[in-house]
Amino acid sequence: MLSRLQQNLTPKQATAVGLLAVAFWSSVIGLIRTVSLHMGAVGGAAMMYSMAAVLIFIIFGRPNLSRFSKSYLFWASLFFVGCELCLSLSVGYARNARQTVEVGMVNYLWPTFTIIGAVLFNRQPAKWWIALGFILSFAGIAVVLGGEGGFSVSGMIANIRTNPTSYIMALSDALFWAAYCTLTARIKAQGNAVGFFFLLVSCILWAKYFSDGTGSLNFDTASLFYTTAAASCLGLGYAVWNIGISRGNMTVLAGASYFIPIFSACISSFLLQTPLPVEFWQGAAMVCLGSSVCWLATRTAERKRY
């Protein structure tokens, strides 16, 4: 299904399709939170990933795991599953709407971590000022978590202490995803095992749900609507991104992806009906700018290398 669609697209059309992933992934944080409010943090996540796994199997087909080494499958499964578990539960365990958006912003440190991982482990050339991008990204998080006063280390620490589980899981999510991307790029993995990874995530979440005995799921119209929307954004996001990076302009797609934190905050603020102060937007812009600086540092070094 996917291969036939790719063959009929021009590079510009493939890029446009790939850009839809930015919209899909920007909606995920707000939708995951809404699902958790209707169906619970664990049960809602289990339903969402189960539906997403089915959608990915329909789009990509059954993954041919024999194309991957056992070592890659082990580590990629560990990183991918760890990422998705931390993402869904960090958002689900957030105490309120504002904290949900903050947790989502911590998650969006992954582009910076991914670039740093490429430099440290994949020998990606980079200019020295990549460090400035790294510092800028973390300074942006300090502004986001500092509260109404903006940049404040003490305010950030006090905020994290109100719910350390969610914030630590969000940071772990960013690190896991960066590790998965770095590993996959390092071995130049051929094929797509995302469906298998999503199936693992859903199985683990269902095991946790039944072992916790957290009660029955709520299958009303609103719950099913938001769960389907969240699963679709996850599954379709991977599908259209795959089209974009396969036949489209990767430079345009990479540049657009660095603005996901801003788009995500906008959508989450709307879905969760929570106003965000000016300081939050300043911090979010710093996170985006920091990721962009890291990316430009590698692009500039790469051009000079050749």
Radius of gyration: 19 Å
Biggest pleated-sheet summary: none
What does the overall shape look like?
globular
Count of distinct structural domains = 1
Helix percent reads: over 70%
Number of strands: 0
**Mean pLDDT over all positions:** 84
Strand content: under 5%
- Counting helices, strands and paired strands, the structural category is mainly alpha
What is the tally of helical segments?
Answer: 15
Low-confidence runs: none
Distance between the termini: 38 Å
Helix and strand succession?
HHHHHHHHHHHHHHH
Task: Give structural attributes.
mainly alpha; globular; EmrE-like; Aromatic amino acid DMT transporter YddG; cell membrane; single chain; 306 residues
Short description:
Pfam families: EamA (PF00892). The protein is mainly alpha-helical and 306 residues long.
Structural notes for this entry:
This protein has 306 residues and is mainly α. It has one domain (10-303). The protein is built from 15 helices and no strands. It has helices spanning 2-7, 11-26, 28-39, 41-60, 70-92, 97-107, 110-121, 130-145, 153-161, 164-187, 194-212, 221-247, 250-257, 260-271, 278-305. Helix 2 (11-26) runs antiparallel to helix 12, helix 5 (70-92) crosses helix 11 (194-212) and helix 7 (110-121) crosses helix 10. The longest helix has 28 residues, at 278-305. It is globular. The protein starts with a helix and ends with a helix. The model has no long low-confidence stretch (mean pLDDT 84). It is found in: Cell membrane. It is a multi-pass membrane protein. Residues 166-292 form the EamA domain. Keywords: Cell membrane, Membrane, Transmembrane, Transmembrane helix. One of its GO terms (cellular component) is plasma membrane.
